[in-house]
Design a protein that fits this description.
Blueprint lengths: L1 H30 L8 E6 L7 H14 L1 E2 L2 H10 L8 E8 L2 H11 L7 E4 L1 H5 L6 H10 L7 H6 L9 H9 L3 E4 L13 H19 L5 E3 L10 H9 L4 E3 L19 E2 L6 H7 L2 H6 L1 H11 L1
Parallel strand pairs: 1-3, 1-8, 2-3, 3-4, 4-5, 6-7
Length: 302
Amino acid sequence: MKFKKNLINKFKEIIYFIIGNVLFFNLIRIITYKKLVNKIFVINYHNTYGIHEKNFIWQINFYKKYFKIIDYQKLIQIKKNKKIVSKKPLLLITFDDGHRSNFEIATKVLNPRKIKAIFFIAPKFINFHWPNNLIKQCIISKKKFNIPCNYNFEKKDNRRRIAMTWKDIINLKNSGHIIGSHGMNHIRLSDRLNQKKVNYEISTSKKFLEKKLKTKIETFCWIGGERWAYSFNAHKAIKKANYKYSFMTCAKIFDPIKDDKLKVHRFNIESFFSKNQVRATISYFYSLYYLPKRKFINKIIK
């Protein structure tokens, strides 16, 4: 079984190598670089464990080499001024869920490089009365909140709590990072939810965060990437709550001037992704792969 798994992983890595090196280094960098001026690759992460810190550092340095990393304020400026920011494609980094590993590991890499990210927070995940037992915390994270947790990596980092604290989040805000809403409970905003629950997840989470952090919350991030996790009622509620930007995860390069601000698609990259997998993910292959899904979602929320 282990042999079969290793064989599959090696095969995947070969595919990533072909796609990443051929498409990224040739098609994107050489053929279409000029067409990508002022276009934004929005990246989203989840956990960032210490065991992957060196790999995460390589990823950030890779972004710095081939992209101009921007923050949320620059995104707004581009929309407003419609001026060319850089000859390189742009890149914005986001983190989902409110993992403590983001605060302890990711910001340790980002802050010295003066890179500001958006952190999407689910208040109930932060507010939960977590038991002292780390194994139980991981079980609750997965079962109650559907948020990934690796016990072995958490233990290796000597972590006592898997979720950020409000002190951590205030620290992020004061360091220049942006806090966004990820729903109150981190639940899928599908048609299965009635309007009252949808409003609670979207509108109430915004008000809660604004009161707690004493700052405006302008960004929202959909929960999950499944087709059924999107709904017209949720899209309508996001507009009604006056969010300026709404983020999804269906791998599309974002045009800040022309594209819909409430349909900002992101490229999912994790801190453990190999070099080839990172290149492959931000190549046109993934954009094409997710095209049918984006069309399906557009029909739902149109």
